[in-house]
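Intended use. Records like the one below are meant for learning the mapping from a protein sequence to its folded structure. Do not use them to infer anything beyond what is encoded.
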Amino acid sequence: MTPDLRIVRGDATPEEIAALVIVLATRHAQPEPRPVPRSQTWRNPARAMRKPVAPGKSAWRMSALP
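Structure written out for the chain above:
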């Protein structure tokens, strides 16, 4: 089995190695960032604009709807 961590230079104490392992383990275990929420359409000013009325049966009734 090959080691995942190898000290190449210096003389690290067991406490320093343990601290490094803890930092790397916690950094790897962090949850993924939250997804960006979609924009809310109720704030869109185009929503208040009236849709064009198509001529045809009951067109007058549809003209009163927002």
